[in-house]
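fyi for ur records
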Amino acid sequence: MAILFCDTDCELWYTHANEYDLKVIRMPYIIDGEEKLADLGEETDTDAFFTRMRNGASAKTAGLNQAIYYDIFKPYFEKGEDILYMTFSTAMSGTFNYLAPAIAELKEEYPNVKYRQFDTKNICMGSGILVYLGAKFCREHGDDIDATYEYLESIVDHVGIYFVVEDMKYLARGGRISPAKAAIGNLMQIKPVLSVDNEGKLDLCSKQNGMKKAVRYMLERFDEEYKETEGAPICILDAINPDAAEDMLARLKENHPDLKAEIWRQPVGPVIGAHAGPGTIGIIFMKK
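which gave:
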């Protein structure tokens, strides 16, 4: 059986990762100086994490080093199994600078092992939806990682992801915007709606006056762009903002009563949440 890897920055819920026997690389985050590893929701209390942030706790993320990556992959190289690692966007983190030499070292030691790495060019469930579909395809097609790679290439540019942050200070802390712009934006109740471009980088696609208008804008994008794709869910995520998320869910069902796709509701994880902050809400889906 092929070995399928993902990382917790894809935010695919742990039950779905288990469904297709995905090996999960746990990415680190730090809150008030204590380092933890994300676990796709298996044990993490995300409500408590975001409540701590809202009460002033400092949260940030970190990468993995070369030795950790080497130790993660070595047992599977030793067994000579085909490996496919579906990563979150390589444009969003320096951690892949440490992954590359680890894999190069393993390939030199085990030259007959087939290792492939697919960049989903996305983050959160924008990556997770591709990981889920890729794993499903692989298991249903004889664990052929080459065919799976080609399948993923055919759909990678068809992911719609939109999210809005409640408080812009968290974007400022991560260096995405200046503290001055964050302060002015918060004062004026500006809610930036963010997406991910085709290069796998964050993209500001709209500025809305207030959360309700931001939710309306994201639903309009869904209305214009959604394309039903077999097996693909529609995902609504929030970081302790259940009222806005449930409002989005209700409007989505009202506007599209004949939707056949499953709708997944889940929390934003702590790694993504460390950058976006409490109050964040987003929708992810397959698009035209």
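The chain is about 40% helix and 25% strand. thats all i got for now
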